[in-house]
Design a protein that fits this description.
Elements lengths: L13 H7 L9 E8 L5 E3 L7 E4 H13 L4 E6 L9 H4 L4 H12 L4 E6 L24 H17 L4 E4 L6 H11 L8 E6 L6 H7 L19 H12 L4 E5 L5 H10 L4 E5 L1 H12 L5 H15 L3 E4 L2 H9 L1
Parallel strand pairs: 1-3, 1-4, 1-10, 4-5, 5-6, 7-8, 8-9, 9-10
Antiparallel strand pairs: 2-3
Helix pairs in contact: 2-4, 5-6
The protein binds ligand PBG and zinc ion.
Zinc ion binds next to loops.
């Protein structure tokens, strides 16, 4: 008995495989994260993230030009401020590090889309994503006072020239609050990319080295989601859509591909996946040991995010991937 159905027929020639390929990752799909620090000519490699640097604004501008020349459409900016305090002043100050970086990049490379991360964790002295009762050592972030600070942050980022606001703190109502604040300030055309389903993940470890944003006590489990929950992610997405989100993010990406898929099924908005620091570092570490082929593993991973439903992928591999894809 020979089989009638032979799926292998369509795999016999590279051109044939190319013709029936369902998912193709392109440079258009990528967003490159950058970390801005005070100073000049500063480029400090993040130990746990080989190839990723904390950069002063002049270096960020150089990097932005390179990113643009590689055909990557957008960057997302994070900031490490001069000093941190309980009010996260560095987040919403008009002379804040991200504001400065956004202005400088838009001036030098106007056609590069500048997304800014809108959160407080890099700017609070305790490292939590929101406002705490003075003297609180448990890390119970106060939701509504945090919204006020996020509104100020988003408006000052928009004033600085940011093209897209990306709130990441997982506060209840943050999309609605920010939308209202942006509209009141005349920024009706600035879209919100909401980190709608963001899990309390151990894969963020290297990022917290890069952004100097580890919580000094407690953890983020009262605001970020429990890794065991999927339906709750759909609830979060539903609320953010109601509140006016323009795009939805799932984070992390690799071990949450089922969430990317389910979110894509339920919404017609563009879906972004954040290929987070720990996911990057695992690939880097293994490839530096020659245990895996970095290019092949990274491109397979990025293709898989897209197959799972991601329209946009935030990844520290973006520059390398753009070069690999151009070959
Ligand atoms: C926090 C924030 C995190 C990341 C970006 N913004 C996570 C966290 O520290 O809880 C993680 C990104 C990464 O790991 O690459 N608002
Ligand atoms: Zn945060």
């Amino acid at each position: 008995m020979f089989p009638i159905h032979r799926p292998r027929r369509l795999r016999q020639h590279p051109q044939l495989r190319r013709m029936v390929r369902e998912t193709i990752i392109t440079t258009n799909d990528l967003i490159y994260p950058l970390f801005a620090v005070p100073g000049e000519s500063v480029a400090v490699e993040v130990k746990s993230m080989p190839g990723v640097y904390q950069l002063s604004v002049d270096k960020i501008v150089e990097e932005a030009k390179e990113v643009y020349d590689l055909g990557i459409p957008a960057i997302i900016l994070f900031g490490i401020p001069e000093s941190k305090d309980k009010d996260a002043t560095g987040a919403w100050h008009d002379c804040g590090i991200v504001q400065k970086a956004a202005t400088a990049v838009k001036e030098a490379v106007p056609d590069l889309i500048v997304i800014v991360d809108t959160c407080l964790c890099e700017y609070t002295d305790h490292g939590h994503c929101g406002y705490l009762e003075v003297g609180d050592l448990t890390g119970r972030v106060l939701n509504d006072p945090t919204l006020e600070l996020l509104k100020k942050t988003a408006v000052s980022q928009a004033k600085a020239g940011a093209d897209i606001i990306a709130p990441s703190g997982m506060m209840d109502g943050f999309v609605g609050a920010i939308r209202e604040a942006l509209d009141e300030a005349g920024f009706n055309d600035i879209p919100i990319l909401s980190y709608a389903a963001k899990y309390s993940s151990s894969y963020y470890g290297p990022f917290r080295d890069a952004a100097d944003s580890s919580p000094q006590f407690g953890d983020r489990r009262t605001y970020q989601m429990d890794p065991g929950n999927a339906r709750e992610a759909l609830k979060e997405v539903e609320l953010d859509v109601q509140e006016g989100a323009d795009m939805i993010m799932v984070k992390p990406a690799l071990v949450y591909m089922d969430i990317i898929w389910r979110v894509k099924e339920m919404t017609n908005l563009p879906v972004a996946a954040y290929n987070v620091s720990g996911e990057y570092s695992m690939v880097k570490a293994a490839s530096l040991n020659s245990w895996i082929d970095e290019e092949k593993v990274a491109l397979e991973t990025l293709t898989s995010f897209k197959r799972a439903g991601a329209d946009l992928i935030l990844t520290y591999h973006a520059k390398d991937a753009a070069r690999w894809l151009a070959k």
